Amino acid sequence: MSGIRIRGTGCSLPRQTVTNQDLSRMVETSDEWIYARTGIRERRRCVEESQCELALNAARAALEMAGASPADIGVCLVPTITPDYITPSTACMLQKELGMPEDTVCFDLSAACSGFVFGLHTAQALLAYSRRKYGLIVCSEVLSRITDYTDRGTCILFGDGAGAAVVEYSDRYAPMPSVLGARGDRESLYAPGIGRGEPPVLHMGGTQVFKFAVETVPECIRALLDRAGLTPEDVDQFVFHQANRRILERVMKKMGIPEEKVWMNMEHYGNVSSASTAIALDDAVRAGRLAPGQKALCCAFGGGLTWAGALVELA
Ligand code: UT7
Fold first, then answer.
1. Does the annotation count 241 as an active-site position?
2. What was the pLDDT predicted at 26?
3. Is 109 a pocket residue for ligand 1 (Cβ < 6 Å)?
4. 271 is catalytic
5. For residue 259, what are the contacts with CB-CB under 8 A and spacing of at least 6?
């Protein structure tokens, strides 16, 4: 039985910062309201950067930390809901730009904010069939493209950015435990696609999603820890989807997890959908909160409604 461990992480953020004050000039809101209700002060927004460029820079940073070359990559996955092109996939564009071999399995993956963890799970499964032992997961989002800046219920939350991880698959590692699910819900959080006759912007029932997250994330953590035969004390760092500080505070309270074990960076980047968890993991690693041999519990939730948790170990 083989499994994956994280070899390297990286991220890339657009230059422009949009503060709560900036948003208060666009919709009726305030820095006080946004910070108190979400924990967010600012987020990044692409002006000149493309989704593919962000992905490329995050991937390069993760490869560099891993000491891996594009030629080592057997599986390249790009979880995203805001690709530059419907086709070709961003993964195929990365294949060309980075120079990954033609038999690298490259595709984009749609699991909204749960995308990073869906990507880890899928990479582990596919690497079992690959001649190469490294996988590259690159979450890259330009949510500003599908954000309605007249809707104060959504535009305060979302930001742009990319986060990446290089994983190594080996028979020296136990399989990474993971728990994934979806509820077949189209109303709570959606953006219409081409041909729907509506602008392709995000619609969200904030309260429904909040409730869903506060119920589902603790269940997901419990299932994951049970599967691994561990307790919350055995986890070195919890790395959650950075949707809302209040959601994470409820989760910490329900599960008895101390705040110092939970990495939070939504204050600076907001909710970056699939990229949130990947950026938070990279941040935690680079801040020295996770070292080789340590365990992180990643858990995310979002459109679908999907949820996903994985217990990752750093190589
Ligand atoms: O990544 C996908 C996952 N997405 C999420 O996790 C989002 C989860 N949901 C949330 O984060 C929260 O529901 C929001 C931050 C979106 C909203 O916070 P809330 O505490 O649920 O507020 P609410 O929607 O219940 O609205 C409370 C009040 C309302 O006014 P009244 O009816 O009480 O007079 C809203 O109109 O706050 C008002 N409001 C605002 N006021 C100032 C809603 N948005 C704003 C705003 N600024 N931006």
1. yes
2. 97
3. no
4. yes
5. 252
Of 11, 46, 92, 241, the catalytic one is 241
- The number of the ligand 1 atom at minimal distance from the alpha carbon of 243 is 6
**For position 1, what pLDDT does the model report?**
87
Contact (CB, 8 A) for 203 and 290: no
Does the beta carbon of 210 lie inside 6 Å of ligand 1?
yes
| Distance set, CA 289 to CA 94, 99, 224, 286, 314 (Å) | 29, 32, 21, 8, 11
284 has a pLDDT exceeding 90: yes
Measured in Å, residue 30 CA sits from the centre of ligand 1 at 12
Task: Please provide the size of the chain in residues.
Answer: 315
Residue 33 beta carbon below 6 angstroms from any ligand 1 atom: yes
Known catalytic residue: 265? no
Band (pLDDT 50/70/90 cuts) for residue 80 is very high
Output the CA 142–ligand 1 centroid distance in Å.
22
For 203, the token pair is: 């619609």
- What are the pLDDT digits (tens) for 137-171? 999 999 999 999 999 999 999 999 999 999 999 99
The verdict on whether omega for the bond into residue 14 sits within 30 degrees of 0, i.e. cis, is no
74 pLDDT more than 90: yes
Query: Rounded to two decimals, what is the model's pTM?
Result: 0.97
pLDDT tens digits, 183-233: 999 999 999 999 999 999 999 999 999 999 999 999 999 999 999 999 999
Residue 12: left if φ>0, alpha if ψ -120 to 50, beta else—which one?
beta
Distance 227 CA to ligand 1 centre (A): 35
Q: Is the distance from CB of 12 to CB of 61 less than 8 angstroms?
A: yes
Residue closest by Cα to atom 43 of ligand 1: 153
Angle of the 51-66 helix axis to the 90-98 helix axis, nearest 10: 50
Inter-CA distances, 69 with 66, 89, 90, 170, 236, Å: 9, 21, 19, 17, 29
Q: How far is the CA of 21 from the centre of ligand 1 (A)?
A: 17
